[in-house]
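User: My advisor, Dr. K., asked me to get a structural model of this assembly before our group meeting. I'm new to this, so sorry if the format is off. These are the inputs:
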Amino acid sequence: MNIINARLRGQTSLYSIRVEQGVFTAIEPQTATLSPSASPSEIDAQGNLVCAPFVEPHIHLDAVLTAGQPKWNQSGTLFEGIERWSERKPQLTPEDIEQRVLKTVQLLVENGVQYIRTHVDVTDPSLTALKTIAGLKEKLSKVIELQIVAFPQEGICSFPNGKQLMEQAIEHGADVIGGIPHFEFTREYGVESMHWVVALAKQHGLLVDVHCDEIDDEASRFLEVLATAALEQDMGERVTASHTTAMHSYNNAYCSKLFRLLKKSKINFVSCPTESIHLQGRFDTYPKRRGVTRVKELREAGMNVCFAQDSIQDPWYTLGNGKLLRVLDAGLHICHMMGYRDLSTALDLITINGAKTLQVEQQYGIEEGKPANFIILQGCDDLAVIQQQGEVLYSVRQGEILVQRQPASLLRTTHLS
Ligand code: 17E
Ligand code: FE2
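Assistant: The format is fine. Below is the predicted structure of the whole assembly, which you can bring to the meeting.
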């Protein structure tokens, strides 16, 4: 396969890219625009951006497409979402889960995603969702790389046999250990769960991704416990703190002290801006907090932050359509990241930073010798892609075309100039 007239992130020239046996073998600047040949193995990128695939580092695939079942979340709080989900959970069957997961992965793939980390609720004595999704991993590997988080939605210390269920989830194929300290019955349980999670992951050679401080409570400070455990157990880059929305409400003096630890610990951050702006601030009158973690400040302090969708039409969030460009657009607004410097590197938030969080960056990126996984986006650079909010034109995985589409064509318009 040959890709001609490609733009690459951070480069001004046009490039030609050769792919052989599923690997990038040559990436060379062009001196001029090339005319397309009739070869079926050639893709003319037409000056659009050839970019590493999107990474969805945080989504609850077990719950997708269940909004309103059996009841709608009327208040819009995280806590009502957890309650509605606990009513849907007893109705889960392998067929129901498989059908929803396949439909959603298809949607994600069509929108340029090739890497997914999914949280799967293990506070279910039957572990139906975990077993079903682990069983789909092989089938899905043709189109995506899937990481499964053993996610204790109703707590580790606060749920009957919570620790045993987490351990069973590892036997059934979980890759990542989750947690939910702000939802445990007590602060002590929250602290205990953080030490236990990091030690368990270390013992099994797994990763950690905790729903950490997903609440507007400025006194929710489990992030410092998680980061300290990560630092002391030498697990830093293998640990992720998701949401950390309470950080929005921390006072600046505490945040300044906290950032020293966070930086030292090298942990990763996932923010879900559309989800958090929707679920947080719900107990406020006016002015209402945005309830999104300090993405701009974490990035400026040199930490790894990525964006995720969290939900697609589930008890927490009724919208969602698999488009990470939509989440990026919202996140840039919500986090006040609309300056040129932020906009011109914004795709990092849904590409390489997600790959670092998933610890797949060794095999990720448009470089000679790496697997030929890439997408083609409408626009010549990050800013143009975000301005246009266009569709993903191609998604190619190990040299195989997964998705190919034509931009929508305007059939009639009024010309003003
Ligand atoms: N569960 C949770 O605890 N938090 C969320 N944002 C979602 C599920 C979607
Ligand atoms: Fe989540």
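One thing worth pointing out at the meeting: The pocket of fe (ii) ion (ligand 2) is lined by residues 58, 60, 119, 211, 242, 310 (CB under 6 Å).

User: Perfect, thanks a lot.
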